[in-house]
Write a structure and sequence with these properties.
The structure holds 3 protein chains of 3 kinds.
Chain A lengths: L2 H40 L5 H16 L2 H11 L9 H26 L3 H9 L4 H32 L10 H12 L2 H34 L4
Helix pairs in contact in A: 1-2, 1-4, 1-6, 1-7, 1-8, 2-4, 3-4, 4-6, 5-6, 6-8, 7-8
Chain B lengths: L4 H39 L5 H16 L2 H14 L6 H26 L3 H9 L4 H31 L11 H12 L3 H32 L4
Chain C lengths: L18 E10 L2 E11 L4 E5 L6 H8 L7 E6 L2 E2 L2 E4 L2 E4 L2 H7 L3 E4 L11 H11 L5 H14 L15 H13 L5 E5 L7 H17 L3 E5 L3 H7 L2 E6 L2 E6 L1 H6 L4 H13 L1
Classes of the chains: A mainly alpha, B mainly alpha, C alpha/beta.
């Protein structure tokens, strides 16, 4: 069998898997971005309870392993009567995990906006929520974008773990094809290349152009 | 579902033994990554453009594809070419390669943070390039790299559960096995989570103090 | 490729200079830093290079230390080519190995000292002698201690650079360079990064070197009074060329060229 005929026979399954991976990627990214900003802002809160919740969330999801979190959600939660389907469990775990890392980026970026900006907004008698939304967050966003570029790649890689709770993503399909064909180089190799193309030629350029757009909006380019 | 303390005590020895294996896997994987990463970093600093570009691309590839898929690839592809790797060997190669890519970036950052004047001083007292690296540049590149190196040690540790997919007898594998035999997942998975949380938090603190210690030791305040 | 066949493989004769720049040219892209430089420095001579910033004066020293490559001409040190090596009877650009051997007779001190921060003052001075010259630790230590005494830094020998003032760091840097027993010493704006009150401690060390040792020295400085005190000759650089050179007395009291006069009066006005 040549690689070409291998592809024509199994190409559809790679495509199916890649689509599920893309869905997992988009869902978990949305969740992670939301949680990162929520927790990142709570980390700055002066209300101790809110701050404590954010600290526990971040430390817990950063401190335990993603695979452990995934298995816990999938195998342990049902014991308490909460049964989630694999797809939901998958992006929930990946989103929760990545969100904890993202919270640190948000927190760090907001804190690195120069003090003078806070004071200038204060001097204009802006409300604290307006100050945050109109002055601080736009600047923090530009600061943290490059780091998000790396985190989004990590998130893509993390989605491969959902295969282990039988979400039929690219990783899962590759594993299935491998056990039926024993063509390990081709199955796993092709999957690796698809992930690489996704990361290097889709995510990285998107993040770069986002950085450029934001820089231009800030009048820096 | 109730937490069963008797069951917990029963499985604890087995879990602790698996923890030792997990730590060993992380340690060996890290040692490989640390050495290989330095080779990757130095290869990118040579004057041979084709070598530099090739290594750069390999690093990018390793960094942007999922580790779990790389573990499968290394484990299953060997036999196709008549090389049978044990789960341990395959796992260590995969983790070592994957994190070598990350560590090479840490090293590169550290080396580039050493000022140009240091190189010029090396020329002025006529050190050979090898001597300059060994005696002057790398010792100075170390302190700014320690934080990054420590973070990836923790990351490797948290990624070891992925080794369970090819049957390395670490914590996750033990939890899976215990859960399957007793139809009780709550205790094993929760213990795994706790072990990871405790060790991660503990080592993060340890790395911070190590970073301060090494700066003092090198006289760089 | 420039034709190097007219350049001698070695300088011979009764008065071979310690350093000779022969038609040396240095460019960055289209920008000409130094244009056809010809300059001799005799053994034991102290030559100071002055001029406005961007005139190429620091580049002169950096080329001699082989920190910069040159785009034309040849530099000779002690009669032998530095930037080139003889091959089949003609000069060709030097390879790394030749360069390393050739530059061993040159030492340099920098504006920002560039001491090794992870080593004590003593270790800084022992590094070259042990690693490059192959001295034993004991010999290197004796040599380093002697030099640190000379620059008045022996009491601080076990301190790391971060614990030393700028003036103290620069004195250690001078000792470090001297520990390699160079024939030619280069001082590149060694007082420019220093606080005014500590400049004296560095210039005094250099004055000491001039009176007590028979070193060939090339210096770039903005300290006109200091340059006048200790130099045998001053070269005024302008636009990548030597505009005028003379003894300090002549150049400072009776400059011939208009640009020299302008530069000197501007410097005087700033003082």
């Amino acid at each position: 069998m040549t690689y070409i005929s291998f592809l024509s026979e199994y190409g559809g399954r790679f495509l199916d898997g890649a689509l599920v991976t893309a869905e997992q990627f988009v869902c978990s990214l949305a969740l992670a971005v939301f949680l990162a900003h929520l927790a990142g802002l709570l980390l700055l809160s002066r209300t101790m309870v809110l701050k404590a919740i954010a600290v526990v969330y971040v430390e817990f999801f950063r401190g335990t392993s993603l695979l452990v979190q995934l298995f816990w959600l999938f195998y342990v939660l049902p014991l308490f009567g909460v049964t989630l389907d694999p797809f939901l469990t998958g992006f929930l775990a990946v989103g929760l995990n990545t969100g904890a890392y993202g919270a640190q980026l948000v927190h760090g970026a907001i804190k690195s906006v120069p003090r003078g900006q806070w004071e200038a907004a204060y001097a204009l008698s802006m409300s604290s929520s307006k100050r945050m939304l109109r002055i601080i967050i736009p600047q923090a966003f530009v600061i943290m974008l490059p780091a998000w570029g790396n985190l989004v790649i990590e998130l893509l890689k993390s989605t491969a773990l959902v295969a282990l709770i039988a979400v039929p993503d690219l990783m899962f399909e590759a594993k299935q094809m491998n056990s039926s064909t024993y063509l390990s180089t081709w199955t796993f190799g092709t999957a690796l290349i698809i992930y690489y193309v996704f990361a290097r030629f889709l995510i990285t350029p998107t993040m770069r152009s986002l950085e450029r757009i934001m820089a231009r909006r800030m009048g820096r380019a | 579902m109730q937490w069963d303390w008797q069951f917990t005590v029963e499985i604890l020895p087995r879990m602790l033994w698996a923890t030792v294996n997990t730590l060993m896997a992380a340690g060996i994987g890290y040692a490989i990554a640390a050495v290989l990463g330095l080779i990757f970093a130095m290869a990118q600093r040579t004057r041979f453009r084709s070598l530099t570009v090739t290594v750069r691309e390999v690093v990018e590839f390793l960094r942007s594809t999922p580790l779990v898929l790389q573990i499968f690839f290394v484990y299953y592809v060997g036999p196709e070419y008549g090389v049978s790797l044990s789960p341990w060997v395959a796992g260590m190669i995969a983790i070592g390669l994957h994190y070598a890519a990350y560590l090479s970036e840490v090293y590169r950052g550290g080396i580039e943070s050493v000022s140009k004047g240091q190189w010029e001083a090396c020329t002025a007292i006529n050190l050979s390039p090898a001597q300059a690296y060994r005696r002057i540049i790398l010792p100075q590149a170390l302190p700014p790299s320690v934080a990054g190196m420590g973070n990836y040690l923790i990351s490797i540790f948290k990624d070891t559960p992925m080794l369970s997919v090819i049957g390395v007898a670490e914590l996750m594998q033990a939890a899976n096995a215990i859960g399957g035999q007793n139809y009780r997942y709550l205790e094993p998975y929760t213990i795994v989570g706790l072990v990871f949380l405790i060790i991660s938090l503990f080592s993060a603190a340890l790395i911070r103090s190590f970073e301060n210690w090494i700066r003092r030791k090198l006289g760089m305040y | 490729m420039q034709d190097l066949s007219s350049y001698p493989l070695e300088l011979t004769g009764p008065d071979v200079p310690m350093v000779r720049f022969m038609n040396v040219r240095k460019t960055y892209g289209d920008f000409v830093v130094l244009d056809d430089l010809n300059l001799d420095v005799a053994a034991g001579e102290m030559v100071t290079v002055i001029g406005p910033s961007g005139s190429g004066k620091t580049t002169v020293l950096r080329m001699l230390m082989t920190l910069e490559t040159i785009n034309g001409g040849v530099i000779y040190v002690d009669g032998k080519p530095l930037t080139h090596m003889p091959k089949n009877g003609v000069l060709v650009p030097a390879d790394a190995k030749y360069l390393r051997k050739a530059r061993s007779s040159i030492g340099m001190c920098f504006q920002h000292f560039n001491l090794f921060p992870h080593m004590t003052a003593l270790e800084n001075c022992m590094e070259g002698p042990v690693q490059v010259l192959g001295l034993s630790k004991k010999e290197a230590r004796e040599r380093a201690e002697e030099l640190l005494s000379m620059v008045g830094m022996i009491e601080k020998k076990d301190q790391h650079p971060a614990r030393l003032s700028g003036g103290q760091q620069q004195r250690v840097a001078i000792a470090r360079a001297l520990a390699m027993r160079p024939k030619v010493m280069l001082f590149d704006e060694v007082t420019s990064a220093l606080d005014p009150e500590v400049i004296g401690e560095v210039t005094n060390v250099i004055k000491d070197l001039v009176t007590k040792h028979n070193l060939t020295m090339l210096m770039v400085t903005h300290q006109m009074g200091f340059a006048r005190d200790i130099s045998d000759r001053i070269c005024f650089f302008f636009g990548g060329k030597i505009e005028e050179q003379n003894t300090p007395e002549e150049l400072f009291t009776n400059p011939q060229k208009e640009r020299t006069q302008q530069f000197l009066s501007a410097v005087k006005a700033a003082d």
